[in-house]
Design goal:
Length: 286
């Protein structure tokens, strides 16, 4: 009897491997920046737990979004038929168990800290999927949580609350833009997202988040929480990106610039991570 080979590529795609790897990298960054005393072997397990947790969230999200994704993202594994819904459920369960086993093997603190986001992701998928803004808040919270997760139990944990908060506001705004991008497919499948509100209302929310994020940037610089290189990158790269993105959002015809604005949000977040990493790496030389 010939056994059918399992194609792992669709499974790698459904967890959004680039997002999962970025989450894992952010966990390591939190560990590194906080001067955590955890051994590298434990950090490696936490990175894997983060990747599994992120993959779990993305997989169950795709299961529930399969109808809207047939319009918005037809090339994703589920609407494409590369993975069955049953296989996706089984895979998500394996990711869930793996995340818990990996994190509890490090410590009970990290184990319970992993239970929280997994619980939130499950509650969202089962009960809050049709609630506007809820998903945006959840995703933004979990992204911010990732850097703090890597810093758990360390002396440097408190100062990382500031960049984590900046990541929250940037991601919350970007999730709103993504909802506006996917509005046609979501409406066709009956999914209610933040796009339920008017563009003017969402624009105002994004401006509030942008103001909060910009304030946090200046607070971290003013309090000298990080070094000179962080300040240089913050003022010469992050600030111009922030201003340019804000100008795009304020202009008419925003509907034609959703993809560009979303990319700018992602670039601003990535630049922030680079600023933190470079500042740590070259500490004392600037």
């Amino acid at each position: 009897m010939i056994k059918k080979k399992v194609n792992i590529i669709p499974y790698i795609r459904i967890i959004r491997y680039h997002n999962a790897l970025m989450a894992g990298l952010t966990t390591f960054l939190g560990y590194w920046l906080s001067d955590s005393s955890l051994p590298l072997s434990s950090v490696f397990l936490l990175i894997l737990a983060t990747i599994c947790s992120t993959g779990f969230g993305n997989t169950i999200n795709d299961i529930y979004d399969i109808d809207s994704d047939r319009i918005n993202h037809p090339n994703r594994p589920l609407p494409q038929g590369a993975i069955s819904v049953l296989s996706a459920w089984i895979f998500s369960l394996l990711l869930l168990i793996s995340a818990l086993v990996l994190s509890f093997s490090v410590s009970s603190l990290h184990g319970f800290a992993t239970v929280l986001p997994l619980l939130l992701l499950t509650i969202y998928a089962f009960f809050l999927k049709a609630t506007p803004i809820a998903g945006n808040l959840l995703v933004a919270t979990l992204v911010a949580y990732t850097i703090l997760y890597g810093a758990l139990g360390s002396v440097g944990f408190p100062r990382l609350i500031f960049p984590a908060s900046m990541a929250f506001f940037l991601n919350f705004s970007r999730e709103i833009i993504k909802d506006l991008q996917d509005v046609k497919g979501d409406q066709a499948s009956g999914v209610i997202t933040s796009a339920f509100f008017s563009v003017q209302t969402l624009r105002a929310i994004i401006f509030i988040c942008s103001t909060a994020c910009l304030s946090l940037l200046f607070i971290t610089i003013g309090m000298n929480l990080f070094g000179n290189l962080y300040t240089v990158i913050g003022l010469s790269v992050i600030l111009p990106l922030h201003v340019y993105r804000t100008i795009l959002i304020s202009r008419k015809g925003i509907e034609n610039k959703f993809a560009q604005i979303s990319t700018l949000f992602k670039l601003e977040m990535l630049t922030g991570l680079v600023a933190l990493a470079a500042d740590k790496l070259f500490a004392g030389t600037f």
